[in-house]
C-alpha cells in the first residue's frame, strides 16, 4: 500500500507564528489566550479568545489578493506558502494535475461575510464587495491556495467542525493512495467576530470565565467550557516514494491510521463514537493501544465531554496508561484548524522526542484516571494518536508514526 | 434620468483600481496603460465589477452592467463613463 507522509508544515497559531516560534512557545507552556481584541466583545458573556497576534497581512499577501480575502484566508495562504517552502517543493516541477488541495472549514469567512452583509443592510447593494461572491465561502481557503499555486489536482473541503482538521488529512491520504504525488491539507479557521461568536455561545459549550488563565481547563475539576481561537496548520501530505524521489529534506512522519465515526442520535442510549474512531484508526495503522506513546486529546473543556473522553482513554489504554496532552489549552479550540494543528504538533513531538504540556490545568480531575501531561516531558515517541470531536457528533482519530 | 457631467481621469481610475482590487506584481499602473487590456493588467471581471462599484459610489453615477464586458481597456471604460452614457444615480 502507498504510504502517505507529511513533508511540510505551515503554522499560524495564537501562541506562535511559524512552526518554530509556535513549537518553542508550546514547549514552554506559553499561552496565546487573552481578551478579545478583534471586535468589542463587552456585551457578550464570553470575552476570551486565542488570537493570532503580530500577523501583518500586507507582509504576506499580494495587494491583488487583499481586497478579496478574509483574515482566515490570508492566514491559510500564508500557512500554505510556509508548508510548501518547508517541504522544499517546487509545484511547477510537479504534474499539472498532480497536487490537490483538501482543507477543513467550519462557517467560512464569517468576518468578511458579516462586514458585507452589514454594508448591504445599512448602506445598500452598491456598497457590497463584488468579492463577497466567493470570499465568505467555506471552500475559499482551498480555492485560493489552489489558484495561487496553480494546483489542479483533486481538491475539496470538509466540514466536520473541530474534527475537520483530521478528516482533511484522511481524505488527502485517499488521494495519495489513488496515485497523486502530493496534497496540501489541514485547516485554518478564524471566526473571532460577532457572527462567529454568537452561534458558539448558543451551543452552551463556551467558557464564560473571563480570566485567560482560568477560562479553558479541560480535564480539570474546574472545567467550564472552551475558549475559541483562530489559526491552525497546513500540512503537505506526500506519497513517500515521490518524496524520496525528489529528495525531500524532511519527513515528519507517516499518516499511519485514520478513522471517523458519527455519534448515534441523542436519546438512543448507544455509546458515543469516539472509542470506535480510535480503535479503527489503531487497526488501520496495524498497531494496538500499547504501541501508542502519546495521545493528543480533543479536550473539550466541558465536564461531560471530558468525562466521556477520559473514559474512552481509560478503556483503551487502562488507567493512567498513556501520556495525554492538550496543547490547545494555549491556543483555544480553533474550529476547523484545531485538529490540523494538533497533528502538526504531534509530528513535532515525534521529531523532538518531547510531549508538549497542557497549560493552566494544574492536575487532572482525579476521577478521570488519565496521565495528563502538565509539564513538557521527554520521551522516545514513535506513535501518536490525535483525537478530535466536532459539534454535531463528529469523531475523528489519526495515528502518526515516526 | 439625467446625464452626468462627472469626468473621471486615468489617474482617478488607477487610484480606484489600486484601492478596490490591488495592483498585480510587475505591473506599473502609472505607465502607459490607457490602451492595455484590463486582463493584461491583472484584472479579471470581478476586479472590474469592484472598481466600477467604487466609481459609482464616488461619483454618484450609474454605469451599465455590460461595461464589465464591453470596456476592455482603461481608455474604453473612461470613454464610456465620460461619454454621458453613465447616468446620475
Overview of this protein structure:
The complex is a heterodimer of chains A (402) and B (89). Chain A has two domains: 243 residues, Peroxisomal Thiolase, Chain A, domain 1, CATH 3.40.47.10; 145 residues, 3-Layer(aba) Sandwich (Peroxisomal Thiolase, Chain A, domain 1), CATH 3.40.47.10. Chain A is 31% helix and 20% strand. Chain A contains eleven helices and 16 strands. In chain A, helix 6 crosses helix 11. Chain A starts with a strand and ends with a strand. The model of chain A has no long low-confidence stretch (mean pLDDT 97). Chain B has one domain: Non-ribosomal Peptide Synthetase Peptidyl Carrier Protein, Chain A (Orthogonal Bundle), CATH 1.10.1200. Chain B is mostly helical. Chain B has four helices and two strands, in the order H-H-E-H-H-E. Chain B is globular and about 35 Å long. Chains A and B meet through loops of A and helix 1 and helix 2 of B. Chain A: Keywords: Acyltransferase, Transferase.
Entry keywords:
heterodimer; A: 402 residues; alpha/beta; Peroxisomal Thiolase, Chain A, domain 1; 12-stranded mixed β-sheet; two-stranded antiparallel sheet; 11 helices; 16 strands; 31% helix; 20% strand; B: 89 residues; Non-ribosomal Peptide Synthetase Peptidyl Carrier Protein, Chain A; 4% strand; Ketoacyl_synth_N (chain A); acyltransferase (chain A); transferase (chain A); acyltransferase activity (chain A); Beta-ketoacyl_synthase (chain A)
Amino acid at each position: 500500500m502507498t504510504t502517505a507522509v507529511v513533508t511540510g508544515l505551515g503554522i499560524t497559531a495564537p501562541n506562535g507564528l511559524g512552526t518554530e516560534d509556535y513549537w518553542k512557545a508550546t514547549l514552554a507552556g506559553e499561552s496565546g489566550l487573552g481578551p478579545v481584541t478583534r471586535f468589542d466583545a463587552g456585551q457578550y458573556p464570553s470575552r476570551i479568545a486565542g488570537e493570532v497576534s503580530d500577523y501583518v497581512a500586507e507582509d504576506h499577501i499580494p495587494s491583488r489578493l487583499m481586497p478579496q480575502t478574509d483574515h482566515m484566508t490570508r492566514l491559510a495562504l500564508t500557512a500554505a506558502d510556509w508548508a510548501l517552502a518547508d517541504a522544499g517543493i517546487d509545484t511547477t516541477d510537479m504534474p499539472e494535475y498532480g497536487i490537490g488541495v483538501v482543507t477543513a472549514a467550519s462557517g467560512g469567512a464569517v468576518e468578511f461575510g458579516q462586514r458585507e452583509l452589514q454594508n448591504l443592510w445599512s448602506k445598500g447593494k452598491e456598497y457590497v464587495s463584488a468579492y463577497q461572491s466567493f470570499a465568505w465561502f467555506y471552500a475559499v481557503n482551498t480555492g485560493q491556495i489552489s489558484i495561487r499555486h496553480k494546483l489542479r489536482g483533486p481538491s475539496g473541503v470538509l466540514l466536520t467542525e473541530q474534527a475537520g482538521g483530521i478528516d482533511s488529512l484522511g481524505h488527502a491520504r485517499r488521494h495519495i493512495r489513488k496515485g497523486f504525488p502530493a496534497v496540501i491539507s489541514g485547516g485554518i479557521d478564524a471566526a473571532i467576530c460577532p457572527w462567529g461568536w454568537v452561534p458558539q455561545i448558543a451551543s452552551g459549550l463556551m467558557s464564560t470565565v473571563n480570566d485567560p488563565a482560568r477560562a479553558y481547563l479541560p480535564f480539570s475539576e474546574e472545567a467550564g467550557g472552551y475558549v475559541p481561537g483562530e489559526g491552525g496548520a497546513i500540512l503537505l501530505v506526500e506519497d513517500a516514494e515521490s518524496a524520496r524521489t525528489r529528495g525531500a529534506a524532511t519527513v515528519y512522519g507517516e499518516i499511519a491510521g485514520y478513522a471517523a465515526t458519527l455519534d448515534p442520535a441523542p436519546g438512543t442510549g448507544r455509546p458515543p463514537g469516539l472509542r470506535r474512531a480510535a480503535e479503527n484508526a489503531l487497526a488501520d495503522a496495524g498497531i494496538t493501544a500499547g504501541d501508542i506513546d502519546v495521545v493528543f486529546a480533543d479536550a473539550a473543556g466541558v465536564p461531560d465531554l471530558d468525562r466521556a473522553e477520559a473514559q474512552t482513554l481509560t478503556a483503551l489504554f487502562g488507567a493512567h496508561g498513556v501520556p495525554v496532552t492538550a496543547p490547545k489549552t494555549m491556543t483555544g479550540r480553533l474550529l476547523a484548524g484545531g485538529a490540523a494543528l494538533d497533528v502538526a504538533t504531534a509530528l513535532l513531538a515525534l521529531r523532538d522526542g518531547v510531549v508538549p504540556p497542557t497549560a493552566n490545568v494544574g492536575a487532572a480531575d482525579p476521577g478521570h484516571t488519565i496521565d495528563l501531561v502538565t509539564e513538557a516531558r521527554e520521551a522516545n515517541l514513535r506513535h501518536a494518536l490525535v483525537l478530535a470531536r466536532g459539534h454535531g457528533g463528529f469523531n475523528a482519530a489519526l495515528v502518526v508514526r515516526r | 434620468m439625467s446625464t452626468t457631467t462627472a469626468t473621471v481621469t486615468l489617474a482617478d481610475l488607477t487610484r480606484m483600481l489600486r484601492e478596490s482590487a490591488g495592483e498585480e506584481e510587475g505591473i506599473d499602473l502609472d505607465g502607459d496603460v490607457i490602451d492595455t487590456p484590463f486582463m493584461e493588467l491583472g484584472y479579471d471581471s470581478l476586479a472590474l465589477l469592484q472598481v466600477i462599484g467604487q466609481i459609482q459610489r464616488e461619483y454618484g453615477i450609474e454605469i451599465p452592467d455590460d461595461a464589465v464586458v464591453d470596456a476592455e481597456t482603461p481608455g474604453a471604460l473612461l470613454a464610456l463613463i465620460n461619454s454621458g452614457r453613465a447616468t446620475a444615480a
